[in-house]
Amino acid sequence: SMMRDKNDQTIMKQLHVASNIALRVLERRLKPLGVNSSQYFFVLNLHDDPGVTQDQLVREDSRHQSNVNREISRLVDLGFVDKRQSTTDGRRYQLWLTEAGEDLYPKVKAALDAQEKVLSECLTAADGRVTQADFLAVLHRITQLDSK
C-alpha cells in the first residue's frame, strides 16, 4: 500500500483543504448569479457604502490593488457597478451599484447566508462541543500570528 502522508492530520493541512473546499462550494453558489468569490465582496461593500471611492476599497482589501481594480472593472462590464469620476477630485472614482447590482445584492446575501449555515452545521455536527464563537476565536488567533 502507498505510504500515508503523515501530515494529513495536521491543522495546517486540514485548514488548507477546508478553506479550498469552502471556497469551491461558495463559487458554486455564486456561479448562477454571474459573480465569483473575488467579486461578491464588492457587491456587499457598495450596497452598504454607496459612492465609496475605488482607493478606499483598495485600502480596505488585503488583496493587491491591481486585483481590486480588475474585479471592479469586471463588475462594471457585467453591468453591476457604476464608476464615475469624483466631482470633488478628478483623480478619484466613486462606485455605486447599478439597478442590476442592487437586484443582485439580496441574492448574493442569500448565497452567503446559505454558506454560513452549512459551515455552522459542520460545527454542530461535532456534538455541540465546538461553538461557532469558539471556532471563530481560534481562527482569529491564527490570523493574529502575522502581527506578532
Task: Describe the protein in words.
There is one protein chain. With 148 residues, the protein is mainly alpha-helical. The protein has six helices and three strands. Strands 1-3-2 form a three-stranded antiparallel sheet. A hairpin with a 7-residue loop joins strand 2 and strand 3 (93-97). Helix 1 (11-30) runs antiparallel to helix 5, helix 2 packs across helix 5 (99-124) and helix 3 (54-60) crosses helix 4. The longest helix has 26 residues, at 99-124. The N and C termini lie far apart (43 Å).
Q: Work out the helix count.
A: 6
Largest sheet, spatial ordering of strands: 1-3-2
N to C succession of SSEs: HHEHHEEHH
Largest sheet: 3 strands, antiparallel
Overall geometry: elongated
Briefly note the structural class of the backbone: mainly alpha
Low-confidence stretches: none
User: What is the percentage of strand-forming residues?
Assistant: 5-15%
**How many E strands?**
3
What is the average of the pLDDT values?
89
Separation of the first and last Cα atoms: 43 Å
Radius of gyration: 19 Å
Helix proportion range: 55-70%
Summarize the structure.
The model has no long low-confidence stretch (mean pLDDT 89). 59% of the residues lie in helices and 8% in strands. It is built from six helices and three strands; from the N terminus they run H-H-E-H-H-E-E-H-H.
